[in-house]
Amino acid sequence: MTHDTADGCGVAFKLLKGIVQFVQTFFASTEITVKPNYQSKPDSRSQNMKSSQEIAHYFILSLLASSAVILGLFLLFFCRKKPVESEESLPAARISAQAYPSTDIDAATDGFNHRRIIGTGRLSTVYAAVLPGDQNPVAVKRIHPSLVLSNACFGFPSMLKTLSLAQHPNLVPILGFSQAPGERIIVMEFVGGMSLDYYLHENSDGAASVLDWSLRIMIAAGLARGLEYLHEGMAPNIVHGCFKSSNVLLDDKFRARVSDYGLSSLVANKKRVLVGHVDDEFWSDGRGEACKESDVYGFGVVLLELLTGRRAEEGLLVRWALPLIREMRFSELLDLRLARPSDDTRAIARLARVASACVNNSRKNRPTMSQLATILSNLEME
């Protein structure tokens, strides 16, 4: 029951109680007498006055009775006591990132043993680890020392505590952090699968062929929902700032999980990292400020990668793909490693048009992630 409904029920109950008390008082104070037949006929004017009073009394009683019925029905249908929700049915409270002692991180990674490395990039090296007293594996992201020394990690604890509040099925949640002189560590949930970049572009073992067209549409819809949550479901809103296929992990069910959101401020030399994944406006002010619209552009680039199987490569993918989409030459656009869709190809055409809307428009004309999530979720269900 909502707060407003509860207030209305209280008022209705008080009114009904007041009506009942008034009626009881009315009958208690009203004397009803029966006159015998042999009594002389009363004065006509007095009789008319008495009749008028009786009519008024009956009218008031009828009005009160009607009001009581209406209030009773309201109480019956809207104010019935509803079962109290169990603790299990209530949404889980958001808990900010835990601060781990550096000794725990060192023990979990065997002193950052190279055998535990599961990934590396311009931001960090990632280690598979199990923290002391916990049986669940985690991913330990060790920020490169050069970034730590360059003061890129200023405000690190407060930033991680804010980012860790983001909880969504299509995100890789941040569990905790650690810091020491010259060290900045991010502890994240362990996702057993590989990155989307690996499946699409590291095809020496045929990984790309695993992602058929239905899976690629499912991945696109999941990514849209994850970014929508960051943009609209968090307060304050979170801009990813570095959205690309290497920052997307696929779990054992090929569910897309967005990683490294909100960490772009830690990246040095952003041009080398982001060229081809952000729009021209990103560089126009000379500072490389990320925004929701630049995330939408990066999302469109990832859609083109899903469609074509090609790397972004400094904007060449966008310039190559857009004319083909405008001219509806989809057979030349699609990933050649996969067979053409045997069923209706309209879903692929719609995916291509969505990608075009993300990368071809100016910022003010781009769709929002909420709009994209709705479109792609509907496409996923078709």
Describe what this molecule looks like in 3D.
The protein is an alpha+beta fold. The chain has three domains: about 1-25 and about 65-85; about 100-190, Phosphorylase Kinase, domain 1 (2-Layer Sandwich); about 195-380, Transferase(Phosphotransferase), domain 1. Helices cover about 50% and strands about 10% of the residues. It has 15 helices and eight strands. The chain has helices at about 5-30, 45-80, 100-110, 145-150, 155-165, 195-200, 205-210, 215-235, 270-275, 280-285, 290-310, 315-325, 330-335, 345-360, 370-380; strands at about 100, 115-120, 125-130, 135-145, 175-180, 185-190, 250, 255-260. A six-stranded mixed sheet has the order 1-5-6-4-3-2, sandwiched between helices. A two-stranded antiparallel sheet has the order 7-8. Strand 7 and strand 8 form a beta hairpin. It is extended, with a radius of gyration of 34 Å. It starts with a helix and ends with a helix.
CATH topology of the largest domain: Transferase(Phosphotransferase), domain 1
Within CATH, the superfamily of the largest domain carries the name Transferase(Phosphotransferase) domain 1
Uncertain runs: 1-7, 31-41, 80-92
CATH architecture of the largest domain: Orthogonal Bundle
Q: Which percent range fits the helix content?
A: 40-55%
Order of strands across the biggest sheet? Answer: 1-5-6-4-3-2
Count the DSSP helices: 15
Summed up, the domain count is 3
The topology string of helices and strands comes to: HHEHEEEHHEEHHHEEHHHHHHH
**How far is the first residue's CA from the last residue's CA?**
36 Å
Q: Which geometry do the CA atoms define?
A: extended
Quantity of strands, as a count: 8
On the 0 to 100 scale, the average pLDDT is: 80
User: What class would the helix/strand composition place it in?
Assistant: alpha+beta
Name of the top-level CATH class of the largest domain:
Mainly Alpha
What percent strand?
Answer: 5-15%
Instruction: Note the main sheet.
Output: 6 strands, mixed
Rg over C-alpha atoms, rounded to the nearest angstrom: 34 Å
